[in-house]
Write a structure and sequence with these properties.
The chain has 478 residues and is an alpha/beta fold. It is built from 16 helices and 16 strands.
Length: 478
């Protein structure tokens, strides 16, 4: 194996016992959950890779900060620590806490988006796409073409296709483009990074057409680490310097702080210009939806832990270990001949479920098939990033076909060891060996009108061989 596991740059000081159910018990649990991984109790999961959002382990300094948190309703000292950290790292003059990333979108997006407007992104994640649509606008993905082929090893597969972006602006008119969103790293494309050069080019186009540029910054530190490794102009810069430079090209950012700042709850909005009239709108929306703007739906202790996590998340030795976990899994998958979005992304490994189940069509959700099989095989909970998650067209209500059919192995920060990762890979190898035996996928028996993959009920499509005395045996799908 080419990649050696990078040892953890920390000691383990506290442990949380987990249990392992039998295969029979796991099959019962997934059936009771109506084949939706979000419906399974956390206590019934052995290795939980459903998401890296809010599932990381906080440090001793963050736990100490929890005790120091100032719970004043307005103007808490913990807020000013967070504000100062945000200004220092991102170079933005206004920092607004909120309780998580989708809250940031709820507060910010309606100020730019409404019916008849469009938002362009290198690729929207499902919750961000939902907030575009809830504001009445329509979301347009514009990721580079090489991202759509998992086998192509390109260094920045998360980039915006700038030529396509220009054509879209010309087609709809710049006055109808309410917002451009650059997602770093590009989650839906497999956790793939965005280059400094690409961010600069997108910024120039936005400025030319007077279109506001928002950075979806959930995994800003991982993106900066990839830039330092792969982009010559930034090779001798620190992670913090790379982040400050990259954010200089945006007008604002929205962030789920539950990822790269390693907290269990929290989010941020940043505005570069401290005199922007946008700030008053953000404060008004925040007071209405989140609470007073100096706490934004968070307790003082959360603000304190977030301020500390902003710095811990940009530590280079930590990031080398963090990205190294995904690279270790990828190296083992290469040996086993299991395809994934390559090169591996930051926060996890996106396994190519369509490659593993080429006979299962997108309307039967191969990404969900693999997720269910991983739970049955070893109690591993993962998430579909494919047509099942993408959902239906908001206008025609017809099932959309995703560019990828991935099963995402999202790795929580500072939680699992090399032995846990080996269990995951061994389970994937076992499923690959019997993949031909899994003939059909799943169909949806009930779904909500939006963000269905959190709540939808599914059932397996069963093939039954029936006998007809007048005709040959026919294969009937139920």
């Amino acid at each position: 194996m080419a990649i050696k596991y990078i040892a953890e740059p920390f000691r383990i000081k506290s442990v949380e016992p987990i249990k392992i159910l039998s295969r029979e018990e796991r099959e019962q649990r997934i059936e009771e959950a109506k084949y939706n991984l979000f419906g399974i109790k956390g206590e019934d999961v052995y290795i939980d890779l459903l998401t890296d959002s809010g599932t990381g382990a906080m440090s001793v300094e963050q736990w100490a900060g929890i005790m120091r948190g100032d719970e004043a309703y307005a103007g808490a000292s913990s807020y000013f620590k967070l504000r100062d950290a945000g200004i220092d790292i991102f170079g933005y003059e206004y920092i607004q806490p909120v309780h998580q990333g989708r809250a940031a979108e709820k507060v910010l997006f309606p100020t730019f988006l409404s019916e008849g407007k469009y938002a362009i992104s290198n690729m929207f994640f499902d919750t961000t796409r939902a907030h575009v649509e809830l504001a009445g606008a329509r979301a347009i993905d514009c990721v580079v073409e090489e991202a759509k082929d998992p086998s192509i090893r390109s260094p920045f597969k998360g980039n915006m296709d700038v030529e396509k972006m220009k054509l879209i602006i010309d087609e709809y008119g710049p006055e109808n483009i309410g917002l451009v969103v650059m997602t770093i790293t590009n989650n839906s494309a497999g956790g793939q990074p965005v280059s400094m050069q690409n961010m600069r080019e997108v910024s120039e186009i936005c400025k030319k057409h007077n279109i506001p540029l928002d950075i979806d910054a959930a995994r800003y530190a991982e993106n900066a680490f990839f830039i330092k490794q792969r982009e010559e102009e930034c090779r001798n810069m620190s992670i913090k310097e790379i982040i400050t430079k990259m954010f200089s090209y945006g007008d604002m950012f929205t962030m789920s702080a539950k990822k790269d700042t390693i907290v269990n709850m929290g989010g941020l909005i940043g505005v570069k210009d401290g005199n922007s009239p946008l700030i008053l709108k953000i404060k008004a929306n925040c007071i209405s939806y989140e609470g007073f703007y100096t706490y934004g739906g968070l307790a003082g202790r959360d603000l304190e832990a977030l301020a500390i996590g902003l710095y811990e998340g940009i530590d280079e030795s930590y990031l080398a270990y963090r990205i190294g976990q995904s690279e270790y899994i990828a190296a083992r998958l290469d040996e086993a001949g299991i395809q994934y979005q390559a090169p591996v992304g930051g926060h996890g490994v996106f396994v190519d479920a369509q490659s593993m189940f080429p006979h299962i069509p997108y309307i039967e959700y191969p990404g969900q098939v693999l997720a269910i099989e991983l739970y049955k095989e070893a109690g591993i909970r993962t998430c579909d990033i494919g047509s099942y998650m993408l959902g239906n067209d908001p206008d025609t209500k017809e099932q959309l076909k995703a560019d990828f059919e991935f099963t995402r192995l999202a790795i929580p920060r500072r939680v699992y060891t090399q032995a846990h990762l080996d269990v995951v890979v061994d389970a994937l190898i076992a499923i690959k060996e019997r993949a031909h035996e899994i003939k059909r996928g799943y169909k949806i028996s009930w779904e909500p009108p939006i963000l269905r993959h959190f709540q939808a009920s599914l059932e397996p499509i069963v093939e039954v061989c029936t006998v007809n005395t007048e005709k040959e045996d026919e294969l009937v799908s139920i």
